[in-house]
Amino acid sequence: MNGLTARWAWQTPADGTVFSAAGAWPLLAFLADGAGGAARAELSEALGVPAEHAASAARGLLAALDSVSGLDAALGLWAHQSLRFHEEWRGGLPVGSHGVFGDDLITAQERLDAWAVERTGGLVERMPVTLTRDARLVLASALALRTTWRQPFSETALFPESGPWRERRLRGLHRRSVRPDRVGVAGAPEGFVTTLTVPGDNGVDVHLVLGEERMTPGQVLAAGIGVVERTVAVTPGGALPFGHVGPGLHVESQPAVEPEPIALDVRTVAFEVRTDHNLLEQPGLFGLASATMVPGSHFPGISAAPLAIGAARQSAVAQFGALGFRAGAVTAVMATPGGLPDHRYETTVVRATFDRPFAFLAVHRESRLILTAGWVTEPVPYQGM
Description:
By secondary structure, this protein is α+β, with helices and mostly antiparallel strands. Helices cover 21% and strands 33% of the residues. The protein folds into two domains: 2-146 and 273-337, Antithrombin, Chain I, domain 2 (2-Layer Sandwich); 148-269, Alpha-1-antitrypsin, domain 1, CATH 2.30.39. Helix 1 (2-9) packs antiparallel against helix 7 (217-228) and helix 2 packs antiparallel against helix 4 (51-66). The longest helix has 16 residues, at 51-66. The two termini are 48 Å apart.
């Protein structure tokens, strides 16, 4: 999963972004379990595990994530009422994850959006994919993370003296502690970075990583991943010499009224980042290149009906403030028919048109109680051109 994070990080644009490989990984794993041919091989490569082990790994991952205090993980599956699953595949998904939708796409989309809101505590406001008439399956995962700082920051105005934020008035965060080793300098192949660890109260840490000005976002993220995985060595703050020792990092002597231990003084900014990702803009990164090709039946383990990936997106948000950190991500893929429809039969169609005043009654099905009734004379006007 960290491997997918690292590969995704290299594609980071220059503007703000947030993404979650942890949110995408279980989704791709369940797809791999039901995939065949080239799609199966590509998904397996993107996941870093054999396709035959992907579903069990995804179930274990979701259970492990959901057991972490402050972290909620969920998987949802919605299928068109006409789609018939292979029960072996559907049975491998978490219990209670399956829903059905029909031709009322507005109501179905509302249910999907409500699921995204509920599963992320309101951070993600809608499902990343929009149902279409040819949608046959939507598979989605949601992650919601919240942690409170063990030592909160104090808010203060921050006026950067140089760089892109120069002359801007920002919401600054300040904290002073006696834990200098929370900060350190790492020498990655692409350049030096300063890394700060901000611990939460539930076993979750947030790492802030500042690189040299010449470094790209992907390079700084890659260095930070190396620090987290301990493949890039870090010199802790307590072992650094006096002077300018890393990006944005200085070690200096200050007067004090009495002997004090080495202190760590941190100034940063509060932030909120929201990003929508179209995973099909980089299908190879996620193992979805072959799975999008039409005609084709890329998921024979899911259904006998030919299926292809018609959409794959992620909506993610991260909030960093004086008291803690919150993040949410919803990742969704939508499968559409992978071949031309097979019109082998004829059917009878009864068409009803309500194009003049009409009545309506709302009835409680079990008791047959009429809850409300009315007469329509003034339909809502069409606002289009």
